[in-house]
Design a protein that fits this description.
- By secondary structure, this protein is an alpha+beta fold.
- The protein has three domains: about 110 residues, DNA Polymerase III, subunit A, domain 2 (DNA Polymerase III, Chain A, domain 2, Roll), CATH 3.10.150; about 120 residues, Roll (DNA Polymerase III, Chain A, domain 2), CATH 3.10.150; about 110 residues, DNA Polymerase III, Chain A, domain 2.
- Helices cover about 15% and strands about 45% of the residues.
- It has six helices and 25 strands.
- The strands form four sheets. Strands 6-2-3-4-17-16-15-10 form an eight-stranded antiparallel sheet. An eight-stranded antiparallel sheet has the order 14-11-12-13-25-24-23-18. The chain has a five-stranded antiparallel sheet with strand order 5-1-7-8-9.
- About 35% of the residues are buried.
């Protein structure tokens, strides 16, 4: 096996696999990527059995072959090598990577031991703007549960449906303390999925990674897998086989006290409150009064922070407490100048919305004060 390839192209291809390859596994070969040569193409394949990635890159193929090699070590080698073209040679499962005067030799593992990964090229896929998928992920992923035992919440719910002749793609995430819902109108009609599909956290982050710079991607479903295809990469993510909770019941039917705030001043004030937060306590109390909002965060382990900002408000005085990080996450997802807070009474959930449109809402449970 022998090929030559542009250094930056090779490095980009290997780095895409680093989030997929298993760090802790009883199968050492899952730490590896499979390199396979075809006519004028190098195919890079990685899998952890739940997520699989196949990428094709232009290369000068001198002698065909295939080998698996540590993804981490190969990435480190290519990153440190200086030069434009990498010369890759493999004989008797020993890999030689060279560029200019630098030469590495490391052992590989035979490709026969690598799990089979199919490219699913015959699956029906639908065109969609990559920036749209990325925006929905950014607006919801922060609310995913961190507890891997709660598999149905350790990911996002994706729904495709039609609403008044419009095709809608919606993503939902919740950890039980907050709920983020974002939707976008799409041009293509997808097969409607009654219960939606749950894409796990790790798979979602890999999806975001490969579409980061792509203008248009394709998505589809096959054998309980969500498929995302870019210009030179196919990513397959196994779906979570579980039921998602009825999140619509959490969304308040009645609007609370609505207050419009300027996003940037409010966000900066919350950041200053978060300075005195800790793992034990990260609460902030918002006190609304005529024409002003007072923020206060008191932490016995760290100290106290207080700030006052001018707002347009003429209602009754109102105090409400939140986890400051939850509130910042919800507001960070808004890309407009204004933020609409709908505050529920007592311990009823509050809603963070955009001032224009209904493409995004975040439900945040208040703290007892």
């Amino acid at each position: 096996m022998n090929f030559k390839i542009n250094r930056n192209t090779f490095l980009d291809g290997i780095q895409k696999t680093l989030g997929i390859v298993e760090k802790k596994t009883t199968l050492p070969i899952l730490n590896n990527v499979l390199l396979k040569t075809e006519q004028n193409k190098l195919k890079i394949i990685a899998t952890d059995r739940e997520i699989s990635l196949i990428s094709d890159y232009e290369a000068d193929i001198i002698e065909k072959g295939e080998i698996t090699i540590s993804a981490k070590k190969l990435s480190e080698m290519i990153r440190e090598i200086q030069g434009e073209v990498i010369d890759f040679t493999c004989a008797n499962n020993t890999v030689r990577v060279s560029c200019q005067r630098a030469v590495y030799k490391i052992p590989g593992l035979p490709s026969e031991d690598f799990p089979e990964v199919t490219d699913d090229r015959n699956v029906k896929l639908y065109d969609i703007q990559g920036v749209l998928i990325k925006d929905l992920i950014n607006k919801t992923s922060f609310a995913m549960a961190l507890d891997e035992m709660r598999r149905n919440l350790n990911g996002v719910l994706i729904e495709f449906f039609s609403d008044e002749s419009k095709n809608i793609l919606r993503m939902v995430a919740t950890d039980g303390h907050r709920l983020a819902v974002a939707k976008k109108e799409i041009l293509n009609s997808f097969v409607e999925i009654e219960k939606g599909i749950i894409v796990p956290r790790k798979g979602l982050m890999e999806i975001k990674k490969i579409i980061d710079e792509e203008e248009k991607v394709q998505i589809g479903l096959n054998n309980n897998m969500f498929i995302v295809k870019t210009q030179n990469t196919i990513l397959k993510v196994s779906l979570v086989d579980a039921d998602y909770p009825d999140y619509k019941r959490v969304i308040p039917a009645e609007k609370g006290v609505g207050i419009v705030l300027e996003r940037e001043p409010f966000m900066h004030a919350l950041r200053r409150m978060s300075v005195v937060s800790s793992e034990r306590y990260s609460g902030v109390i918002l006190s609304f009064a005529q024409g002003k909002l007072t923020l206060n965060s008191t932490n016995l382990d760290v100290g106290e922070a207080t700030e006052e900002i001018d707002i347009i408000y003429s209602g009754e005085e109102l105090d409400v407490g939140f986890n400051v990080n939850y509130l910042m996450d919800a507001i960070s997802a808004i890309d407009q100048d204004g933020v609409l807070l709908e505050l529920g009474s007592g311990i009823k959930p509050s809603v963070v919305r955009q001032t224009e449109g209904d493409d995004y809402i975040c439900i945040v449970m208040p703290l007892k004060i």
